[in-house]
Amino acid sequence: MGYETLSLACVLAPLVGFAVALVGFRTRHNVAAAIATVSGGISVAAAAMLLVQMPHAVVEARWFTIGQTPIEFGILLDGKTIIMGGVVALITFLIQLYSVWYMKTDPGKGRFFAFLAFFEWSMLAFVFASSLLQTFIFWELVGLASFLLIGFWYEKPSAVAAAKKAFLMTRIGDVGLFIGLILLFRATNTLDLTQILGIFAPEGAPASIAPDRVELIALLLFVGVIGKSAQFPLHTWLPDAMEGPTPVSALLHSATMVAAGVFLVARLHPLFLDAPATMNLIVAVATFTALLSSTMAMVARDMKRILAFSSISQLGFMLMGLGAGSLFAGFFHLTTHAFFKALLFMTAGSYIHCAHSNDIVAIGRAGAARKLPVTTFGLLAGGLALAGIPPLAGFFSKEQIIGAMGHYPLFKTGAYVAAFLTAYYTFRMIFLIMRPNVDSAIESEAPHAEEHHAPHETWFLRVPILVLSLLAIGTGFLGGRIGHALGIEHVHEASIGAMAPAIIIALTGVVLAWLDFGRRGARQVGFIASVPAIQKILENRWYIDAVYNATIVRLAVGVARACFTTETRGLDGAADGVAYGTSGAGRIIARSHAGRFQSYVALAGVIVAALTLYIALR
Amino acid sequence: MTVHGWVFFSLMLFALGLYAVLSRRNLIAILIGIELMLNAASINFIAFNRFVADDAAIGRIIVLFIIGLAAAEVAIALSIVLNVYRQRHEIDAEALDELKG
Questions:
Q1: pTM score above 0.80
Q2: Total structural domains in chain B?
């Protein structure tokens, strides 16, 4: 089949699946699930064939023309989009399979699968976008899909609040992105991605655009990325996004939504390369975010929350690599992270289902690790990859990033610290789940004694976990091929000497976690707890949410309340006043219509007398 | 007696009639009040006819009309009162508030 058919099938199959499932079979859950999953499967097959063919082409159709500027809708096929599209399609498909198990008895199953397909379609169309307008439209649709899925259990107030928070926080960034795109259009007079990349592709800033304008555009685009990819200071929405069903978290944190921001930077990397000041800022923000969220993950007890913090910090790593100028490092980590983070969230869903608790201590004490062997295998594979232990995927990509940061000694140190903390908190989680110490002082909810119907793993759970485990273990060796697909001839292959610090640091983190949590009789409280003040700060997430609530949220709520009062008291009040005044006056006058003819006669007499007096005295 | 005396007399009679119409609750008493007012008007006409234009007959003719009208009015009004009584077994003016708005 030609690449046109394949790419169209890849992007449009989920859309068809979404429409058919939502319109036709929303209440017939299994049919809807089957349709959405099959559409996901078609997408994967098409993406796989595209990966084999690896065409460089554009499939597009004119949408409309403004003045001299044609606006196209289409599919841009090159190394970046095909690899990313493949990752998106594969992970969504596996998550759909996983959801068959996870959402088995959910009353909204049909809707859920339809939304998953919608999410996949938005993300694929975003990835393959051939013009920046299309990029922006699907960027927003990805946000909408996350909103719908985070708030999927809409009867839960916390889920609704989390969905709203995610939508609003990312919207702040989107304003920056939108302004950036407008400025970019003004500077280049086109929205076509191929042309824009052509303008920025040559070494050095393009002569036609002022350098500070390029900086401004890059900065505004990065504001959008900050919102979408949950970087400081807009990162607070991501941990709350846990309120959605676990498959949603798995999707949102790996291949879609948060990956969109990083992918945008990778997509427009030539533009960013022409904006050195913004690149420095990206590295700084990314390093700071990675450190910040790693520290928060060190004390969290909610498994999904730990993974959310680690997503934020890994996104920071990706942006560090991209900001340091290495497209390959950032993109590679985006790919590997997608696999192992989706995997870790699947294991989290499995454990939580078994132990009926999000708390890693409770999961450990419920003995979930032994009851669910495949899940535990997945946890180990994903955890080792996340911690950056060779030879798993995370090690290679993280090593590439650290290797790319040679020009930034300070931030490189930061990256090492973040990598150390990542290894520590990952193994804290693993040890607490796999080696629970029932005698340790920390308290947790009592494990639920539901032994008689302990959930057993089905193949819908095992297959996705095993496939992703394989990818988490093996993707690291595909670095050269990915680099080749991105058009990078010589992927920087580090020597053992250069790799040594990263290995040592990751292993130190693991050993420290072993001492704190893993070894027999460990107190399982972590070294942070010896300084209660820091522990408290970290548990409260550096009080960033508290500060936002006390300032911005309160301000916004105040303004909203003032508007509400103006609306209800002022505008409605005026309208109501006229109505009530009229009817009130009517009621008072009606009182004189008592039906007593004698009073009417009296009134007539008075009037006649008054008239007479008036005539007589005139 | 001069014209002033008669006009004052008729004024008093009219006032008494009006007072009866406004204050009495019995419909019959109200009708009596109306008769008083009509008679006051008649006396006014006669007095002015007698003292201002004695040779003209217009005042006396109007008074004859008033007497006729009064008879007709009383006949109709009494029949209304009778019907009211038949329907409601009372002739209290306060109770008749169907005109209430």
A1: no
A2: 1
